[in-house]
Sequence to fold (258 residues):
Amino acid sequence: MKPEGNGRHPRRGIYLLPNLLTTLCLFGGFYAIVAAIDGNFDRAVLGVFAAMVFDGLDGRVARLTGTETVFGKEFDSLADMVAFGLAPAVVCYQWGVARIAEYGLAWGRLGWIAAFFFAAAAALRLARFNARAALQDKRFFEGLPSPSAAAVVASFVGIAHKYDIVGLPGLVLAFAITALAGLLMVSRFPYRSFKDRAAGERVRYSRLLLVPVVIALIALDPPVVVFLLFGGFALSGPLLWSWARLRRRPREAAVPHD
Fold:
């Protein structure tokens, strides 16, 4: 009898591993929603961050083990919608809407509209990604990826909760950031996917050293560092697009016209 792992079909345990990681991503989003409803915003933010870690692992594990399936891709999209669409929106809503409504009914309505807009934008972003996955340049994403947008929103709520930012300017800024993150998700700005390197390709030792440095910085103040990292990444799309436009204009001007 042949061993279970021989032949073309991988072991069932390997098939289960990427889907288990996707389930943990889904659980992170669910936990964030429940924690936010209970008023535990520190734990809610950690739930979103944990979902990001598992979301980053499931696809890589599936590619490395050759266990990518249509079911896995669909399951991943549904988990992403909960973890990076609904969870950040609910966390922001639970933290801010009741506070901002104290300044007037109109402010409260703007708050929940911003939260819903973020969730709707995440759904549109994921649907567009699935529809155009076969045609897109693998080196770039079209629009801000939903995990990055979720990190921006969740980390700012973490900052606001940690440093007790409860005044009207801070609340307005929180919902403005939430709405802006939603706009960037449905935009056409290009974002580096970092998928242009093969899994087994060698990287410079100096770049490898960046990993413990980044981890150490995040450990110092997780919400602030994560917000700066992913906020910078969110701004890189418009900046990259603007730079490409500026470089194109001199070339177009240099072309003689009849």
Summary: The mean pLDDT is 86.
